[in-house]
Specification:
This protein has one domain: TIM Barrel (Alpha-Beta Barrel), CATH 3.20.20.70. Strand 2, helix 6 and strand 3 form a beta-alpha-beta unit. An eight-stranded parallel sheet has the order 7-6-5-4-3-2-1-8. By secondary structure, the protein is α/β, with parallel strands linked by helices. The longest helix is centred in the last third of the chain and has 18 residues.
Length: about 325
C-alpha cells in the first residue's frame, strides 16, 4: 500500500505522478454504477450550489485558470494558434483583471493538434503555460498502434508537456480489459515526462458502468488524468458521467495514495455550467482537485462567456460577445 497523502497537500511540483499498478480485474469489475441515483444526485446540484457577487467572480477566475484553451479544427493556421496563445496569456481584458485583483491570471494550458505544437510552444515561451497535444489518431483512435506511439513521441519532442490520448473504445465494448490496460500502459511509457490524459469518449461506451470500469483500468495503467470526451462525439461531458469518473478517482486515491486529475471536455460553454462542475469537484474530491494540475476544462467558447460575466460583475452592465474575442 502506498502512503496516503495528507490533506495538507504537497506543492504542485512535488505532487507524485500516478505510477500505475498491476491490473486488478477483481477491483475493476467490482465497480458498479447506480444510474438512477447518479442522475438524482446530479439533477439536484445546480439548484443547491450557487455563488454570488465577489464569490462568483473568484470561482469564475478559478475556472479560467483550469481551462485547456483549445482549437482542433481542420482549418487551423499558425496565425490562429498564435492568437489563441495570446488569449491564454491574457484571457480577460486587462482592465477587468485589474478590477478583480488578478492581473496575472492565465489559462491552464493550450491544446492543439500535433502539427501546431511547435507554433504554440514558441508563442507561449517564458509563460509557464504548457502545451497539450491531442494524439494517437485523435479523435477515433483507430490508426495502427505503432503510428499512434510515434505520434506521441513526435509531440513530446516538439515540446508538448501534456498528451491527450484516445483509448480504443472497442476494448471497453468487448470487455477486453487486459488489452485496454496494455494499450494505456504503452502510451504512458511513450509519453515519458509528459503527463498523459486518457480520453474515454464516454458518449460511445454505452453505459455508466463501462465508464467506471474504463476509468479504473486507465488509472491502473498510469493515466495522469482521465478525460470524458474528444469533443467530437454526439454526447460529450455530462454531470452523471463526471460523477462516475470522479468517484473512481476518489476510490483510486483512497486505495493507492495517488491523485489522478479530471478533465470534462465538450459541450461546456456557459459560465454557470463551469460553476456547477467546480461545485461537484469540491464536494466529491475536495479543494486539492480545484488546482490546474488536477482539474481542467476542455473548452474554447467557455472563456468568452466567463469574460462577459466578469465584465458584468465589474461594471454592472451586460456585455456583447464581440467585446471579448477569443482569437
Amino acid at each position: 500500500m502506498h502512503e496516503i497523502l495528507t490533506d495538507t497537500h504537497l506543492p504542485q511540483a512535488m505532487e507524485p505522478r500516478n505510477p500505475g499498478m498491476p491490473l486488478d480485474l477483481d477491483w475493476a469489475l467490482s465497480v458498479q454504477a447506480n444510474t438512477s441515483a447518479i442522475e438524482r444526485r446530479c439533477a439536484s446540484l445546480p439548484g443547491r450550489r450557487t455563488v454570488k457577487k465577489d464569490y462568483q467572480a473568484a470561482w469564475l477566475a478559478r475556472a479560467i485558470s483550469c481551462i485547456d484553451l483549445t482549437t482542433l479544427a481542420g482549418d487551423d493556421t499558425p496565425g490562429r494558434v498564435r492568437r489563441l496563445c495570446a488569449k491564454a496569456r491574457q484571457p480577460v481584458r486587462a482592465d477587468l483583471l485589474n478590477a478583480i485583483g488578478l492581473p496575472d491570471l492565465t489559462t491552464g494550458a493550450v491544446c492543439v493538434y500535433h502539427d501546431m505544437v511547435e507554433t504554440a510552444v514558441e508563442a507561449l515561451q517564458g509563460t509557464g503555460i504548457p502545451v497539450a497535444a491531442v494524439s494517437t489518431g485523435f479523435p477515433a483512435g483507430l490508426s495502427p498502434l505503432h503510428l499512434r506511439m510515434m505520434e506521441i513521441e513526435e509531440s513530446v519532442k516538439a515540446g508538448a508537456k501534456e498528451i491527450d490520448i484516445v483509448i480504443s473504445r472497442r476494448h471497453v465494448l468487448t470487455r477486453n480489459w487486459q488489452a485496454l490496460y496494455d494499450e494505456m500502459k504503452t502510451m504512458r511509457e511513450a509519453c515519458g515526462d509528459a503527463h498523459v490524459k486518457a480520453i474515454l469518449a464516454t458518449g460511445e461506451l454505452g453505459t455508466l458502468r463501462n465508464v467506471a470500469r474504463a476509468s479504473m483500468v486507465c488509472m491502473m495503467a498510469g493515466a495522469d488524468f482521465i478525460k470524458t470526451s474528444t469533443g467530437k462525439e454526439n454526447v460529450n461531458a455530462t454531470l452523471p458521467v463526471s460523477l462516475v469518473m470522479i468517484r473512481c478517482i476518489r476510490a483510486f486515491h483512497e486505495r493507492t495514495g495517488y491523485r489522478v486529475g479530471y478533465k470534462p471536455a465538450g459541450g461546456i460553454s456557459k459560465a454557470k455550467d463551469s460553476l456547477t462542475y467546480l461545485a461537484l469537484i469540491k464536494e466529491e474530491l475536495g479543494n486539492r482537485w480545484l488546482e490546474p494540475d488536477m482539474f481542467r476544462f476542455g473548452a474554447s467558447s467557455l472563456l468568452g462567456d466567463i469574460e462577459r460575466q466578469l465584465e458584468h460583475h465589474v461594471t454592472g452592465a451586460y456585455s456583447a460577445g464581440y467585446r471579448h474575442p477569443i482569437g
